[in-house]
Design brief:
Blueprint lengths: L2 H20 L3 H14 L4 H13 L3 H15 L6 H17 L3 H14 L4 H10 L31 E8 L4 E8 L17
Antiparallel strand pairs: 1-2
């Protein structure tokens, strides 16, 4: 089968899966969505819908995994922003149920950037944030120089900073990752032309 034929077959299976889903035939819907994914593994909507079915079936771990895959596939496509938000929201919710608080918080923070006024996202974040693994600075190794009988004080390790960003016509999402800094000691300042 060629790629367009695969996508056509995948879409037909997806539509059948939707019918089964709306008829509350979740096992059949999961099977059809799985077949659709096998025919076209690049469509985030297929993963998202299968995630919802798996949640209905009580398979939260697989649901969270599918939601994460849907988020990954839709992350760089501005036309799929709603779908990306929904995938992040559901992944965060289910990861929290599985007590994967760091994963949950990461997805929920990204969702909150897209829709900061979403009440459920705020509540979930308020619940999982205190349960995340705190960032503890790595111990600073003392530098000892044995020159001329004097030693210099230890030099603190510089914070390790990394950033990622995503931009479309409506907004820019900037994520800043900092190691070796306590959360309370960190601050970010935005100006027109810089972030410090």
């Amino acid at each position: 089968m060629s790629k367009p034929a695969n996508k056509t077959a995948a879409n037909a299976l997806f539509q059948q899966g939707n019918e089964a889903y709306f008829d509350d035939e979740y096992e059949q819907a999961e099977s059809l969505y799985t077949q659709a994914i096998a025919a076209d593994h690049t469509n985030s909507e297929y993963y998202l819908r299968r995630a919802q079915v798996r949640s209905k079936l009580g398979n939260i771990e697989s649901a969270a995994s599918d939601a994460q895959k849907a988020a990954t596939l839709s992350a760089d496509k501005s036309s799929l922003l709603r779908q990306y938000f929904k995938a992040l929201h559901l992944h965060g919710k289910w990861a929290a149920e599985l007590k994967n608080y760091d994963e949950a918080a990461e997805s929920l923070r990204k969702a909150a950037v897209i829709n900061p006024s979403h009440e459920e996202i705020k509540k979930l974040l308020d619940t999982v944030e205190p349960l995340t693994t705190p960032v503890v600075p790595e111990p600073v190794a003392e530098k000892r120089e044995e020159a001329a009988g004097s030693s210099q004080p230890a030099v603190p390790a510089r914070p390790k900073v990394r950033h990622e960003w995503y931009q479309n016509d409506e907004f820019v999402v900037l994520e800043i990752f900092i190691k070796r800094v306590q959360k309370d000691a960190a601050s970010v300042e935005f100006t027109e032309k810089s972030v410090s």
